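User: I'm designing a mutation panel for Lipoprotein and want to avoid disrupting the core. Could you give me a predicted structure to guide residue selection? Please restate the sequence first so the numbering is unambiguous.

Assistant: Good idea. Sequence first, for numbering, then the predicted structure tokens:
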Amino acid sequence: MAANQRIAVGAMVAAACAASLAGCATGSSGSKEGAPGPVKGAPAPNSVLRLIGDGSTAYTGAQPHLPKPERLKSGEKPPQFVVFSWDGAGEDSQKLFSHFRKVAKANNATMTYFLSGVYMLPEGKRDLYHPPQHSPGRSDIGFNDEKGIADTVQQLRLAWLEGNEIGTHFNGHFCGPDGGAGEWSVGDWKNEIAQAKKFVKNWKTNSGLTNSPPLPFDYDKELIGARTPCLEGQKNFMKAAREMGFRYDTSGVNNQVWPKKKEGLWDLSMQLVPFPGHTNEQLTMDYNFMVSQSGTSTQGDPDKHGYWGDQMRDGLLKGFSRAYDGNRAPLVIGNHFESWNGGTYMRAVDEVVERVCNKPDVRCVSFRQLADWLDAQDPQTLAKLRTLEVGEAPKQGWASFLSARPAPAPKGVPGGPAVKQ
């Protein structure tokens, strides 16, 4: 029931957003079929464990499998970063969260999962959500059920323990006029962020699953970045996010160039890449490829499904090659756990991960890991990298281009001397 509801809601959201360049997250909610099974991936019995609040979350020590960021040496060619990210992450009957966790592990990759807070809230408790500029209990995407929450929590737990990042896609996914995210004030955004955290930190109390293991992280510290619904409201969101300790935003549209900070946050926007068969470029998101191919229909002509997926795959691969052989700007890709046009875009992402993440000098990472690496670099080195245009490799070669001796990283910055406690 819940899974079918998600698909119906997703179609309505797609129709509402079809006219814009922005990507729309439709997310996932759970299915009521069957009872919750045993939960795997709890912290080891002898590990550090300090429960937080009602025990929905816990401090379990430093996150495993996070690489230590290192500052580029003089003349060193930068690695090629690729970020695969997911809007409205949740586990439903399609099992796409668990699927892409396995794909990531098999290809030496980590990813960012932007959780929608309402997926941690059961339908019967929907009135606990007070969305900005809307009545209590209102949401443009579905709430969840007991099994859906249990399944989503299990995937979140395993994903974090494997080194993936848990970000936020906020809650009700409101787009467009009449109270959409683009009309929210800084105060509205702070309220929305606080509620997204609250639903994660209280999923046990709200769902009744009090005997389940906790999520193994402190979400107040874990949450450092987001993507806004339909890429709307970025300006006021960034002001709120900076004041609430966020480190990056990925709600914009950019070219394939090296990122810089905006409003004190790393601007890790999705990018425009070649669109095979077209003269224009396309945003690196499944939703935008779909709208350009089948319009507002999430299930267009079945005879074209394979071709459409190949178009997205080849466009992302062309964008990757343009950076890999050119300026080495990080490639940022956004997606949803969806079955649009027969699941062809999910197949495309599978193939892109397999083809790029195993290449030499390629690092398929989360936004957190990318932000850590950027923070570790000499600002002058990053400024020089930003002089390279889309697809432009240094004419004199990387060794000469980045031959200046980088300044040492200051204390407390990744890659610099440790701060004495």
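For picking mutation sites, this is relevant: The CA atoms of residues 227 and 251 lie 5 Å apart. The longest helix spans residues 305-324.
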